[in-house]
Amino acid sequence: MSRIADFRSDTVTRPTARMIEAMASAQVGDDVLGDDPTVMRLESTFAAMFGKEAAIFLPSGTMGNQCAVAAHIVPGEEVIVEANAHISKYEGGALARIAGAHNCMIQGERGMLPLPDLARAFRAPSVHFPRTGLVCVEQTHLMSGGCIVPLEYLQEVKGMAAHHGVPVHMDGARLWNAQAETGVSFEEYGSVSDSISVSLCKGLSCPVGSMLIGDGAYIERARRVRKWMGGGMRQAGYLAACGLVALEETLPLISEDNARCRRLSVAALGLDGLNMAQETVDTNVLFLEVTDSAIDAPMLESELAERGVMTLALGPRLLRFVTHRGIIDADVEHAVRALQSILS
Ligand SMILES: Cc1ncc(COP(=O)(O)O)c(C=O)c1O
């Protein structure tokens, strides 16, 4: 069978040969009992990388985000969050269901809450209002097309939140893709966030896993929440071993995914019937608007699939491409030729 180019998501990446070897030879224990040496090494490595005291290994980014919120707030407190952020819009209502959060959703621009809107969103102390308990940011911001939220903006948000005594959580599922472009150190990103969740199973290609990073007492609370959620894993070192390999093997390759996405966008925009549905292509995510009146995004998705190019239609006119380690230059060329043959 001919090669399939799978642009649906960077979550489709498979573990590398080195990861599989590392799994086979991992030293493990029982992580719920706190003695899995590979998990302990992964957690301390991530804590050091972000300049924080502690980290916890979790099965998914959703669990990382939801543990993060539940460990920051008490039920009934308000979480300020961008209206299209993954944590609020794409996690099944978990902010309300798990943390018991009262949500204050603000429409952002390029993943950023307008600062005057954010300033107004912090509640004055009053029995009538929920207490503001947390501000969430997302880096990169998926639904704005993987755009990079600038460090200066994150510093402003942190300063405003600190002024109100409110912590900041960063959903950094694709922080790797931002960091590869900005060169801002992980420690600097750590300094503008009280907690950060990062994904191992997207661009980094691990089969499973996310990390939540923060100070020691906070991560102990998150450990308790992970337990409530049934997220304690026993010989988790087999999976944690992949995360350690990823830092050496796949993290240095992330800029290639961003570059391929930019090449794809330039070529696709040369075709009639397509427009960019985002302002810039900062990283590895490309949303195209299908403007050709003869075809809509779900039809284009299935026509492309017949030609071995998998994408995601996320609306009648919106088609998503995500580049990752499983996409090579030839896949980009193949996708452009396939688009050309359908749209001409
Ligand atoms: C920005 C962002 N945050 C969090 C998640 C959740 O990660 P997971 O699918 O591992 O639960 C995703 C998943 O795509 C995401 O795109």
Number of strands: 13
Helix content: 40-55%
- SSE order in H/E notation? EHHEHEHHEHEHEHHEEHHHEEHEEEH
Spatial ordering of strands, largest sheet? 2-8-7-6-5-3-4
| CATH superfamily label of the largest domain | Type I PLP-dependent aspartate aminotransferase-like (Major domain)
Distance between the termini: 26 Å
What kind of assembly state do the chains in view correspond to? Answer: single chain
CATH uppermost class of the largest domain = Alpha Beta
Q: The biggest beta sheet, please?
A: 7 strands, mixed
Mean pLDDT: 97
Structural class: alpha/beta
Small-molecule binders here are:
pyridoxal-5'-phosphate
Count of runs of 4 or more consecutive helical residues: 14
Keywords:
7-stranded mixed β-sheet, 2 domains, 42% helix, Aspartate Aminotransferase, domain 1, globular, 13 strands, alpha/beta, binds pyridoxal-5'-phosphate, Aspartate Aminotransferase, domain 2, 344 residues
Question: Explain this structure to me?
Answer:
The protein has 14 helices and 13 strands. It is an alpha/beta fold and 344 residues long. The protein folds into two domains: 96 residues, Aspartate Aminotransferase, domain 1 (Alpha-Beta Complex), CATH 3.90.1150.10; 233 residues, Aspartate Aminotransferase, domain 2 (3-Layer(aba) Sandwich). The chain has a seven-stranded mixed beta sheet with strand order 2-8-7-6-5-3-4, with helices on both faces. A four-stranded antiparallel beta sheet has the order 9-10-13-12, covered by helices on one side. β9 and β10 form a beta hairpin. α2 packs parallel to α11. The mean pLDDT is 97. Pyridoxal-5'-phosphate binds next to α3.
